[in-house]
Design goal:
This protein is of the alpha/beta class. The protein is 36% helix and 18% strand. The protein is built from 18 helices and 25 strands. The protein has a five-stranded parallel β-sheet, covered by helices on one side. The chain has a four-stranded antiparallel β-sheet with strand order 1-3-2-7, covered by helices on one side. A four-stranded antiparallel β-sheet has the order 13-14-15-16, with no helix packed on it. Strand 14 and strand 15 form a beta hairpin. The chain is elongated and about 115 Å long.
Length: 572
């Protein structure tokens, strides 16, 4: 089994590409009779001119020694036991059930060989071969109570209750040996059962193997074969368990002992003590799980929960851009990106510093951001936005660069130490609502939300723990709006906390850190406290047609704004 470009059973494959692997096979000293593309590499078969009986004409040790010699020469997978089966051409490789790969024949030379043709690869040392098996066998008393009624029936009468028509004595002997090895019987106990003349299972060995040495050798080979098969089955079980574990993405646990799993873009939660087989079948996409596997998976889940730690499921992160230390986190739909030291990394799990990400509508083409991240120019992006904002007729033209700056910073409001409130004051027909729609909403999409008619608490709930850009259109002074301004005063520094509900342990606070945008005909400022937060910008009646950004152009400038702000954050 010559693997290429993937992880093997024990270690990474030696060959990086299939072309490299095939070149090595083609140059091998003994040309394969058949080469099969297994999906992740090549299976090589060498056909003999005639059949050989393993254990009689050729020892198991010698046969496997040939395999090991070929493996060393070809840098192949190191599993050498005879019980291994290779994939059939025309079948599917379903190691990854979601992406089955056809198994096909690459070459069929028709060549056939004698055993001696492989002596150039593996020198055979008969003394080492014999030493590898326990031939020092002697009769002992055996208690067969640990064996099943079926196996005891085969031992006593050579009748398999599962297959009564089966008369293959060799197969029955191997079934008995495998069962006794699995039940931890000693080699002497197995030998005693197989050579006891009072038991039917002994007839073949006692009749066909005339010498005591031949009988011991036959039993020793059968034990060796059984152990190899059990080891192979154990490895397959371990591989399957590893595969099932890989299907479980465990995020951590909550304070009420619920385990959070991440599956196909959805967070699922189950109480650990109530976790059942059906839950794990659902999470791993398989139909059945045995008790042993279920127990192992629960143990794995507990270990992963301890490793991942406690999740603050009540303090979720939502859409927007977040700064944490020297990193920026960008959340858009189901995409979660981490930006650190000029490098963008996509996160596979929706947990950041113990906080769960709550997914909402996508507002950013993250692939476009990756495309422009290194090439976008701060000066060029800034100049283009200044030109666009300049279509509106500002009372003081010197305010245009400031307006462009506020637009660029809007998505980064959580990272700002102080956040102004931007108030655009203008008469009807000046394009103040058009500015919201054609600049902030057109560029930022679903991240910019209109809260014109929202109550103070409804507005706070919409913005709680989000990076959304708050827009209040036609925000003329009323008692309710005065109340809203008072409630949002904590938002201009740090993380403002707005309490809701009752006080005490059950009270839940809303966290707001937003640079609010208002427009109105009459000034909204009513207190000295709010006056210090408000940047007042005045518009005159619009005099020219605004060339509104197309959707593709808006997507691009949004990606470029985010790229240049992050890359120049320290300077800014």
């Amino acid at each position: 089994d010559v693997e290429a470009g993937q992880d093997g059973h024990k270690k990474a494959s030696y060959y990086k590409t299939k072309e490299e692997a095939l070149a090595a096979i083609d140059s091998f000293i003994v040309r394969p009779s058949m080469i099969i593309d297994s999906g992740h590499g090549f299976h090589c078969l060498w056909l003999f001119r005639r059949a050989h009986s393993i254990g009689e004409e050729i020892s198991l040790e010698r046969y496997e020694a040939i395999n090991r010699g070929i493996q060393r020469a070809l840098k192949a997978d190191d599993t050498a036991d005879v019980s291994r089966l290779l994939r059939l051409p025309g079948s599917l490789n379903v190691k990854d059930p979601e992406n089955p790969i056809p198994v096909t024949i690459v070459a069929h030379s028709g060549l056939r060989y004698e055993l001696e043709d492989f002596n150039c690869i593996t020198p055979i040392d008969e003394s080492k071969e014999s030493a590898a098996m326990n031939l020092n066998l002697s009769p002992v008393k055996v208690n067969r109570k640990r064996l099943s009624p079926r196996i005891n029936g085969i031992i006593k009468d050579c009748i398999d209750s599962r297959e009564p028509e089966n008369t293959d004595r060799s197969a029955m002997i191997q079934a008995v040996v495998s069962a006794m090895v699995a039940a931890d019987y000693s080699d002497n106990e197995i030998y005693s059962v197989l050579t006891d003349p009072d038991l039917k299972i002994s007839e073949k060995i006692l009749t066909e193997k005339k010498s005591d040495a031949d009988r011991k050798r036959y039993v020793a080979l059968s034990i060796r074969k059984a152990r190899a098969l059990i080891a192979s089955q154990k490895e397959e079980e371990e591989d399957r368990l590893h595969f099932l574990k890989s299907k479980l993405t465990i995020l951590g646990y909550t304070k009420d002992h619920k385990v959070l799993f991440w599956k196909k873009g959805t967070i699922m939660e189950f109480e650990l003590k109530k976790l059942c087989v059906d839950n794990l079948c659902l999470l791993t996409d398989i139909s059945e799980i045995d008790k042993q596997t279920f127990s192992e998976l629960k143990k794995h889940i507990r270990e992963e929960c301890n490793r991942k730690g406690l999740i603050k499921d009540s303090d979720k992160l939502r859409n927007g851009i977040w700064k944490a230390g020297d990193e920026f986190i960008i959340i858009s739909g189901i995409d979660v990106l981490k930006v650190r030291q000029g490098t963008i990394t996509r996160l596979d799990e929706p947990v950041i510093n113990g906080r769960v990400v709550e997914f909402e509508d996508s507002w950013l083409d993250t692939h476009l951001l990756e495309e422009v991240f290194s090439s976008a120019s701060l000066e060029e992006v800034y100049r283009n936005l200044v030109d666009y904002v300049g279509f509106w007729n500002w009372e003081d033209p010197e305010m245009v660069p400031f307006v462009a700056s506020f637009v660029m910073l809007s998505a980064f409001q959580q990272a700002m130490k102080w956040r102004p409130w931007i108030h655009i004051q203008a008469k009807a027909g000046s394009g103040k609502s058009l500015f919201f729609e054609s600049v902030l909403q057109q560029i930022y999409g679903p991240l910019a939300i209109r809260l014109d008619e929202a109550t103070p608490f409804a507005a706070a709930q919409n913005l709680d723990r989000t990076g959304k850009i708050a827009l209040f259109d036609n925000f003329e002074p009323t008692k309710r709006r005065e109340h809203l301004l008072e409630m949002f005063q904590p938002s201009s520094r740090g993380t403002g906390v707005v309490p809701r509900g009752t006080t005490g342990d059950k009270a839940k606070n809303m966290k707001i850190h937003h640079m609010l945008w208002f427009n109105s005909v009459i000034s909204t400022a009513s207190t000295n406290a709010s006056d210090t937060r408000i940047v007042l910008l005045r518009l005159r009646q619009i005099k020219r047609v605004v060339n509104i950004l197309s959707t593709p152009a808006a997507e691009r400038i949004k990606a470029e704004i985010i790229a240049v702000i992050i890359n120049n954050w320290k300077t800014i």
